[in-house]
Specification:
- This protein is about 60% helix and about 15% strand.
- The N and C termini lie far apart (about 90 Å).
- Strand 2 (about 60-65) and strand 3 (about 75-85) form a beta hairpin.
- By secondary structure, it is α+β, with helices and mostly antiparallel strands.
- It has 2 domains: about 1-50; about 50-150, Tetrahydropterin Synthase, Chain A (2-Layer Sandwich), CATH 3.30.479.
- It has 6 helices and 4 strands, in the order ααβββααααβ.
């Protein structure tokens, strides 16, 4: 009987301790952390910073293109460019045009032989691809095109 009374008192003390800890933790959490309005403001600031700087559009991905004879080869390249996600209409157009961009790259690069591509400067290649990309865009224009992983095999 004495053992049950001892266990009962111990459980009551334990429940009181956890109750105080939960209430104290809640009060501390409410008064010591930033309000959700500040967190929302920080998210708006972050979104504005991203939209002012722009992001890199990498939706075209890595492309492999076969070159023409007499010595057919393979060109591997990754095309990207800056865009502003805050311009929703242009962003949607870019996504819808990914297939067209890939087709332009395959048609243009595939029209050269390996020897011609080796003589062609990367800058002139970027300028022509940029011109062709912008020719199909209606809601905005790409300003600078970046080529990486440009490998001629």
């Amino acid at each position: 009987m004495r053992l049950l009374v001892f266990v009962y008192k111990g459980l009551i003390i334990l429940f009181i301790f956890f109750g105080v800890a939960i209430i104290g933790g809640t009060i501390y959490g409410v008064f010591s952390h930033a309000s959700p309005f500040n967190a929302a403001q920080k998210m708006d600031d972050l979104q504005r910073d991203i939209s002012e700087e722009g992001q890199t559009f990498v939706g075209i991905g890595k492309i492999r293109v076969s070159t023409i004879a007499p010595n057919p080869g393979m060109v591997i390249l990754f095309v990207s460019f800056k865009y502003f996600p805050s311009d929703k209409a242009f962003s949607e157009e870019l996504v819808l045009r990914i297939g067209d961009f890939r087709g332009i790259i395959v048609d243009y690069i595939g029209s050269f032989s390996v020897a011609e591509l080796q003589k062609l400067s990367e800058e002139s290649l970027k300028i022509e691809l940029l011109r062709r990309f912008n020719a199909i865009l209606r809601l905005g224009q790409i300003e600078v095109l970046y080529l990486s992983d440009f490998i001629i095999i």
